[in-house]
Amino acid sequence: MTENKNSINQKWYASWFDTPFYHILYKDRDYQEAQYFMDNLTGYLNLPEEAKILDLACGKGRHSIYLNSLGYEVTGADLSENSIAEASQFENEKLHFKVHDMRDICEEKYDAIFNLFTSFGYFENDEDNLTTIKAIHNSLNETGFACIDFMNVDYVIANLVPEEIKTVEDIDFHIKRYVKDNHIFKEIAFTHEGEKYHFTEKVQALRLADFEQMMEEAGVYLLDIFGNYKLQKFYKNDSERLIMIFK
């Protein structure tokens, strides 16, 4: 049974990703590293000069904007209406943004589809992960490539920081991390203007074997696996990322 999409706004990722606090907490994400990764990835894939790229779960569009600056025709898609509204100010003839559920097949076909920065594994229903991979597969053109950039679960769990306080823009974010029921949880509590907030991020602890099984079921061919943004070899215990290229 597939999750009822009408109830998606009650899901944690729909509410938390749509708040300004999400973007405040993560404002220091490394843009230089993201651009370096995009340079390496597009170079490795040897994409045609004006390739059509879908940045799936694009957030505020930082990867989309940079990919567009490299000359590609880019569509950024995300479930968060607020993120898309903010990203849309950067639109041009070859850069567009849309609200889109990653489980749905796109009407257009793309030369490349990128799902970056652990933007996968949020759904309550395991079947939705497979549905997403099938949707990505069916949204590629005949020569297209896809990339899922996920955390390396074994590395993350081994290096998990159970508790910390992160202060950004005078807000003290109290963060707790733990593993439960094959998910990695991050609880975020803070007070702003006298009001208390609490959000929980929850991502499925998907390992390479899980992705391989889903890709096999989806009829997807896994071409290559990398362990970091330099596109170096993946090591189960030591690599920070699990980057999978498939078609």
Automatic annotation (TrEMBL):
Which GO MF terms are attached to this record? Answer: methyltransferase activity
Return any one Pfam family short name: Methyltransf_25
Alphabetically sorted, this entry's keywords are: Methyltransferase, Transferase
Cite the Methyltransferase domain residue spans from the record: 53-144
Extract one GO BP annotation from the record: methylation
* InterPro entries associated with the record: Methyltransf_25, SAM-dependent_MTases_sf
Which CDD domains would you find in this protein's record? AdoMet_MTases
- Entry protein name: Methyltransferase domain-containing protein
Write the lineage as a comma-separated list.
Bacteria, Pseudomonadati, Bacteroidota, Flavobacteriia, Flavobacteriales
